[in-house]
Design goal:
227 residues, alpha+beta, five-stranded mixed β-sheet, 10 helices, 5 strands
Length: 227
Amino acid sequence: MNDLSLLSNPPLLPREKIQQLGAKALSNEELLALILGSGTQNCDVFELSRRLSNFLSSAATVPTVESLLKIRGLGKVKASQVLACLELSARYILSDKTVAVKTPEDLVARLSYLKFEPQEHLVLVSLDSANSVIRVHELTTGLANQTPVHPREAFVRAIEDRAVAVIFVHNHPSGNTEPSPEDYGITRVLCAAGKIIQIPVIDHIIVGKKGFTSLCRETPEIFESNL
C-alpha cells in the first residue's frame, strides 16, 4: 500500500469506527477514548486512553476515583465518567436481561467483574431452551483459593428457574486460570448431579485477571452436552 492510498483511505476515528463496524471492532484504547471524549492540554485522548487501559488491565480490584487520579492527565471528571461506565456495566451484567449464550466468550464478557474479586466466587447461570440467560446466581464465596459447594445447593436455583441447562463460573484470585484437580473433581460431581435431575451442565468456566478457561473446551468428555 502506497502513501497515496493511505491519504485517500485514512484510518477511521473511534466514533466513525463504532458506527460503521460496531463496538467489537474497537480496541480497548479506542473504546476508552470514546468514553473520555477528549484529552488535556498536555496529553491527547489516545495517549490518555492508553495509560488508562494499561492501568485497568493490571488492576487487582475495581478502581476508585482516588486510584484513577494517579493516572497522569486524568482528572476527577473523567475519572468519574470511567467509574460510572464500569458500574453501569456491572449492573447490566448482573441484571435479568435475556442474553443468548452461544460461546463461553459471550458469558465471560458479562461476568468479567469476577476477575477483580480477592476471594473465589462460584456463580450459577441458568439457561432456557434457547440457551438464553434466565438468571445469574452467586452460590458461594470462599477463601482465596477455594469455594466448596454441594450439588444440592448448586442446583436448587436452577430448579426454581425451571432451567433447561446450566453453566458454572468461578474465579481464580491468583489470576492463573489453569483448572486444578479440585476443579475437575467438582465439575464431574456437578455434571453427574445434573444428569440425574435432567438439567445438564454445559460448561464450567474459570475466570482470571488475564483470561479464562472453558473446561468444556479442555475436557469435553466430562460434559453431557455443550454450547
